[in-house]
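Structure in, sequence out. Go:
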């Protein structure tokens, strides 16, 4: 069985990938806490204090999937250890990045071949990590950029539930144009990229864009407390990914598909 190693196995993206792949792969995952009854090999690991290289050398994965969070400098150190291991073993590394690598030029939808340019610390960090991996591993570094991710257990759906229960207000950004994706759809796209051995950069995203207010109005009722946000920028502000990768056409998703899933997830909560 092929050995997969996942950083961030308890997270939204990590757990969606594990759920889809756990029967077919020998999976080891790491994050900071215990995971009771994990159906894969889970190890406690804090990238802010622990070394990853000895764990990789002991585990010997042929595929590493990075969907972790944590202090940016420490994450860079951890990814340097990944480069060291992967360049010695020829392992492939899949790195989850973000639409924020383009937040320095938020004037249009960005495709895989567009040049990155970030102003946020998060965007800068992700660019540094993308560069570290591609310079160190060339074709063995595969970059998977994500737009806003939703999922049944995602913080965004929890935030919507709290707003629908009038426990909290929700901020809607009038000038934000964005794309979105559902967590399990990321897992299906990832499986296809992995098993077809596709390389390079991929934007795993809905195929269309929508503004934040229109999007959220599709599932928020009128009694919800709204705060009007406005991103300081010449309007409109795009945080939107597009894709020209033909290999993913069978996995095309629209924002309305994601919204349908959000609505279905909301039905489970009493309002
Ligand atoms: N969600 C989005 O909308 C979105 C959009 C664009 C890009 N991304 C990127 O996609 C990746 C996955 O995002 P996600 O939403 O799945 O994140 P998430 O749900 O917050 O999960 C993050 C994972 O990292 C682990 N982690 C955090 N700090 C750590 C530390 N110091 N040491 C070890 N593990 C640590 C967490 O586990 P513990 O807390 O238990 O340690 C968890 O397993 C991230 O790299 C993120 O930047 C996400």
């Amino acid at each position: 069985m092929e050995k997969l190693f996942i950083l961030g196995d308890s997270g939204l993206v990590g757990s969606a990938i594990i759920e889809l792949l756990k029967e077919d792969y020998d999976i080891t995952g790491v994050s900071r806490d215990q995971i009771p009854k994990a159906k894969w090999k889970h190890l406690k690991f804090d990238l802010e204090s622990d070394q990853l290289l000895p764990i990789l050398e002991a585990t010997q994965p042929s595929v590493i999937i990075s969907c972790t969070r944590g202090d940016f400098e420490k994450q860079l150190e951890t990814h340097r250890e990944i480069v060291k291991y992967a360049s010695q073993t020829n392992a492939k590394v899949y790195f989850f990045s973000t639409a924020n690598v383009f937040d320095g030029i938020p004037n249009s939808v960005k495709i895989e071949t567009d040049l990155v340019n970030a102003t946020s610390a998060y965007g800068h960090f992700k660019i540094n990590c993308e560069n570290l991996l591609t310079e160190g591993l060339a074709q063995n570094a595969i970059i998977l950029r994500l737009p806003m991710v939703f999922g049944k257990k995602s913080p965004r759906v929890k935030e919507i539930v709290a707003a629908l229960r009038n426990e909290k207000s929700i901020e809607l950004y009038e000038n934000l144009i964005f794309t979105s994706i559902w967590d399990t759809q990321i897992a299906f796209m990832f499986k296809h990229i992995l098993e077809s051995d596709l390389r390079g950069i991929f934007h795993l995203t809905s195929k269309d864009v929508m503004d934040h207010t229109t999007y959220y109005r599709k599932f928020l009722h009128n009694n919800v407390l709204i705060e009007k946000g406005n991103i300081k920028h010449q309007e409109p502000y795009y945080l939107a990914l597009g894709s020209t990768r033909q290999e993913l056409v069978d996995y095309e998703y629209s924002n309305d598909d994601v919204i349908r899933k959000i609505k279905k997830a909301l039905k489970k909560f009493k309002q």
